[in-house]
Amino acid sequence: xxxxxxxxxxxxxxxxxxxxxxxxxxxxxxxxxxxxxxxxxxxxxxxxxxxxxxxxxxxxxxxxxxxxxxxxxxxxxxxxxxxxxxxxxxxxxxxxxxxxxxxxxxxxxxxxxxxxxxxxxxxxxxxxxxxxxxxxxxxxxxxxxxxxxxxxxxxxxxxxxxxxxxxxxxxxxxxxxxxxxxxxxxxxxxxxxxxxxxxxxxxxxxxxxxxxxxxxxxxxxxxxxxxxxxxxxxxxxxxxxxxxxxxxxxxxxxxxxxxxxxxxxxxxxxxxxxxxxxxxxxxxxxxxxxxxxxxxxxxxxxxxxxxxxxxxxxxxxxxxxxxxxxxxxxxxxxxxxxxxxxxxxxxxxxxxxxxxxxxxxxxxxxxxxxxxxxxxxxxxxxxxxxxxxxxxxxxxxxxxxxxxxxxxxxxxxxxxxxxxxxxx
Length: 424
Description:
The chain is mainly beta and 424 residues long. The chain is 4% helix and 54% strand. It has a 16-stranded antiparallel beta barrel. It has a two-stranded antiparallel ribbon with strand order 4-5. A two-stranded antiparallel sheet has the order 15-16. Strand 4 and strand 5 (88-89) form a beta hairpin. It starts with a helix and ends with a strand.
């Protein structure tokens, strides 16, 4: 190779102009563009407002959600539930409207190893902590992540799926057994994108994450697996097991539940009773076949009597739900969390296609909870829910559904409810 050819190649590799190429836009008299500061921040939109530094070491997100609900309840009279053993009156059923959630949050990562989130809900008229935590990735090179603060205990597919993405407006009757948010720490990990595990130690705290007691501690764990995938990941089978051993505050336990409408009074209620401890177990499964989805969980909770010789009581609940997209869309699964994530319509309503109509999902669910055993007569409730969801785009959906609630041996109630939701 001739020296002239080597010089030409060197010039090309260094950004120089080759003979025959158009001259560079910058002339010798123009100053060079200033180097970008690695700490400069750029903002961009990706299903929410996000930001990151130029060097990528720090990133974050600013987001929130609004869920506005309306419910019309067919049964307007007061129900007297004699099954509770006290002949208690449940309360009047009334039509209503509410902001189910009004949340704002900020979250982010530092050096791809330290994460954080601060989320506050204002729906009840005051600031309530939701997810407020720190996380540390790959602790000591073990591959496990450590999370510290207030967040959801690792229990239940439905509970760990955000309310932005659950199939129905409210979680099932069986969700009364899911621990929800507590304050503590958790270790979690993932193997080969098909297996997840998480275990943590928690205390039941108040709305600001405060818990003051010496002995009341809860231990909760969950494992999930995806033993089968197909159609490029658009079809899959999910299975999981959950367990939680709990020491309720003050050695008193109470479990109650609404008929899958937050504007309804609670129809089943054990009342507070003394316990020495509570063990709760759950099995979960979900099958996604392109547009089709079937999901279900079974949970049981066993409470030991506090006094010597006092009987233990067993409660249980389950649900089975199915859905079908009328459009060419499907549920999305997050392999890292072992839960479902955002539905993204293939053609948004306000996109480039004038004939696009977003995504439409038809759904049906049956659920049941039994809170009566031995001396505790909390009642038995079953629900049938049918509904339709319209996803206008990635961030907006409108839901409408009918809930037929049957309080065993007492009465039945029909509820029509709608939700207008935006999250970002």
